[in-house]
């Protein structure tokens, strides 16, 4: 009987681990609204219009994405997904939706360059960044992840490992969905349109 | 008979050269402020021996490298790789989310509708020079089934 206990414990731990992994990193099904959870919430960062808070955009559906400009593939893809979803909206709806690309790499990404980058994809996507402390706070709030990795073998110097998710925030400022960065744009559009 | 001999000779000399077919090669258009971009393609190796893409060059960028993306535990990681191997009689896809050629230090913007040169150096000492169209690389809007 004594020999079984550690294995049973291991089994339970593995099961819980697998279940948690599935919940957070599994198929691209949307997660339920975090009504009472501590995930999400207001934040303050810099934009081309100066310091802004998420709460400044109450009444809008906000799509938040964490990335960096020296990301040649995943981030442009995410921007393209957001752009395509937004372009499916009618004029009135578009005015009440915004995308926010938060750069976790303020050393390389200035707010002006960031905004020029996002506006290239859509006039409804804006760039924001801040100090490391500000960024870390928002990243933590949203359960996102990023890590600077030195690349001694690349002219890049360093890259950033990061979770690649689109955070859908409802018009009340609540985090409503966490979506894969390469979600089918039609699906993303449907989720946004549901608020109108 | 003369032509057969020539053909045989030619095919013999080419037997040691890479027999690669590059298709669907394209470079991603990016905002004028961008300093980096990527190129994708499908590489088919028609030879009976493996070959690798070992380096690349382009007039549009200071450095061109081979990179790959991998999703590990929900985290997207991009790393430089030394080469891209293509097995005998097999193909490799460089596509968004995975393997790609990375342009670092763009000397001028990659503008949609233009083309960019890309020279790929192979493990057998040969090179392939390509002209890539610059396009918006975006996911397809798939129809929703309800």
Verbal overview:
The complex is a heterodimer of chains A (196) and B (146). By secondary structure, chain A is an alpha/beta fold. Helix content of chain A is 36%, strand content 24%. In chain A, the strands form three sheets. A five-stranded mixed beta sheet of chain A has the order 5-4-3-8-9. Chain A has a two-stranded antiparallel sheet with strand order 1-2. In chain A, strand 6 and strand 7 (158-163) form a beta hairpin. The N and C termini of chain A lie far apart (60 Å). By secondary structure, chain B is mainly beta. Chain B is 9% helix and 53% strand. The termini of chain B are far apart. Residues 12-16 of chain B have low confidence and may be disordered. The interface between A and B is large, with 42 and 40 residues. Strand 7 of chain A pairs antiparallel with strand 5 of chain B, so a sheet runs across the interface.
């Amino acid at each position: 009987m004594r020999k079984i206990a550690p294995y049973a414990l291991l089994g339970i731990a593995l099961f819980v681990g697998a279940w948690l992994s599935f919940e957070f990193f599994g198929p691209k099904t949307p997660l339920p609204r975090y009504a009472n959870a501590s995930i999400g919430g207001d934040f303050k960062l810099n934009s081309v219009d100066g310091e802004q808070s998420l709460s400044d955009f109450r009444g809008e559906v906000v799509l938040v994405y964490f990335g960096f400009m020296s990301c040649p593939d995943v981030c442009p893809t995410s921007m393209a997904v957001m752009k395509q979803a937004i372009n499916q909206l009618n004029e009135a709806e578009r005015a009440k939706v915004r995308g926010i690309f938060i750069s976790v790499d303020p050393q390389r990404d200035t707010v002006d360059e960031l905004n020029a980058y996002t506006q290239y994809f859509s006039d409804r996507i804006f760039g924001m960044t801040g100090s490391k402390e500000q960024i870390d706070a928002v990243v933590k709030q949203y359960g996102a992840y990023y890590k600077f990795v030195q690349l001694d073998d690349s002219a890049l110097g360093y890259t950033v490992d990061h979770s690649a998710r689109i955070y859908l925030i409802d018009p009340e400022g609540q985090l409503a969905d966490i979506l894969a960065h390469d979600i089918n744009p039609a699906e993303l559009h449907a989720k946004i349109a549901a608020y109108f | 008979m003369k032509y057969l001999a020539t053909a045989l000779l030619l095919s013999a000399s080419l037997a040691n050269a890479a027999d690669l077919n590059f298709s669907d090669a394209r470079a991603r258009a990016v905002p004028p402020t961008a300093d980096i971009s990527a190129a994708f393609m499908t590489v088919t190796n028609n030879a009976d021996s493996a070959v690798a893409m070992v380096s690349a060059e382009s007039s549009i960028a200071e450095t061109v490298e081979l990179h790959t993306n991998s999703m590990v535990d929900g985290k997207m990681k991009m790393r430089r790789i030394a080469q891209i191997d293509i097995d005998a009689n097999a193909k490799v896809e460089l596509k968004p989310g995975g393997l790609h050629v990375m342009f670092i230090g763009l000397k001028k913007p990659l503008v949609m509708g233009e083309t960019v040169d890309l020279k790929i150096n192979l493990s057998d000492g040969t090179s392939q020079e390509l002209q890539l169209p610059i396009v918006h690389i975006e996911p397809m809007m798939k129809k929703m089934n309800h």
